[in-house]
Design brief:
Layout: H1 8-11, H2 17-25, H3 40-50, E1 63-67, H4 69-88, H5 111-126, H6 133-143, E2 151-158, H7 164-181, E3 186-190, H8 197-204, E4 210-219, H9 237-240
Antiparallel strand pairs: 1-2, 2-4, 3-4
Helix pairs in contact: 3-7, 4-8
The protein binds flavin mononucleotide.
The site of flavin mononucleotide (FMN) has 12 residues, from β3.
Length: 245
């Protein structure tokens, strides 16, 4: 074999496959964080690693806005106020429409069942009953505080890009979340912010051509928080895998 032809990427052996699996499997949506700040160099590292995510024809359609300290806190204040107002005046909903449909307009089984299991499971852990609107609102509002995470990320994409680029974006987001795990950090991807793009985009300095894809909380998870004991289930791989023979 001509070893001179070997490229480092081809010849790289993962020395410890179990830690790759552990980084993936220990990721969950953390919804309570410690105030401990995250060093900029760590964030830079995570984003550098995540930039290796694949994308169709290597278009790399992602933009990331990192919010910490005052810019983060100012956004939290504005969006929490808007969210409160929206709940008080539901007619305002049209003003806060999402730029793209993240969820189907018509829910069907099994997705609606899984969605319900997720919602009831989370509320169950928090002791929030079915009709307890105030507590539900307060929990939803936690999104707009990044669940107290010191780092908030906002992701945008150029509006000219096609639907396929959202696939690329998903891989980028997962790469961030896994790279964060490798550094002792946790995350929560957040589509909840999408309704408030008209506040967020000017705040972060995004251009007119950019669409908000989602937000993400990032930080050191609060291990003592009840909400972080909530673990979602998964269907077995067997049930979604079709061996074509
Ligand atoms: C793109 C995306 C957006 C999400 N948006 C929110 C959100 O706004 N708020 C929230 O609490 N969880 C959000 N989640 C987390 C999901 O509820 C969670 O991933 C799912 O229930 C599986 O649980 P796990 O992440 O703990 O494994 C989002 C997840 C994804 C992938």
């Amino acid at each position: 074999m001509n070893t001179e032809l070997k490229t480092p990427q081809v010849s790289t052996l993962i020395q410890d496959p179990a830690s790759v699996d552990a980084a993936i499997e220990s990721r969950f949506s953390a919804r309570a964080y410690l105030p401990r700040p995250v060093e900029r160099v760590v964030l830079e590292d995570i984003l550098r690693v995540a930039a290796r995510a694949p994308s169709g024809t290597n278009t790399q359609p992602w933009n990331v806005y990192v919010l910490q300290g005052q810019p983060r806190d100012a956004l939290v204040t504005q969006v929490c106020a808007a969210h409160d107002l929206l709940v008080a005046k539901p007619a305002l909903a049209q003003e806060y429409a999402e730029a793209y449909d993240y969820y189907p307009t018509q829910w069907v089984s099994p997705y609606i069942d899984r969605r319900r299991e997720c919602g009831f499971g989370l509320y169950g852990v928090l002791g929030i009953g079915k009709g307890d609107r105030d507590k539900m609102h307060a929990q939803h509002q936690r999104n707009f505080k990044f669940f107290d995470a010191p780092v908030g990320l906002m992701f945008t994409i150029d509006r000219v890009m096609g639907r396929g680029s959202l696939l690329d974006f998903g891989m980028f987001l997962q790469s961030i979340m896994v790279a964060a795990r490798a550094r002792g950090l946790h995350t929560c991807p957040q589509a909840a912010w999408n309704n408030f793009a008209k506040i967020i985009l000017p705040h972060i300095g995004a251009g007119e051509s950019e669409m908000l894809v989602c937000g993400m909380a990032l930080g050191y998870a609060d291990e003592s928080a009840l909400v972080n004991t909530f673990k979602t289930t998964r269907v077995d791989a067997e049930s979604f895998t079709h061996w074509v023979e």
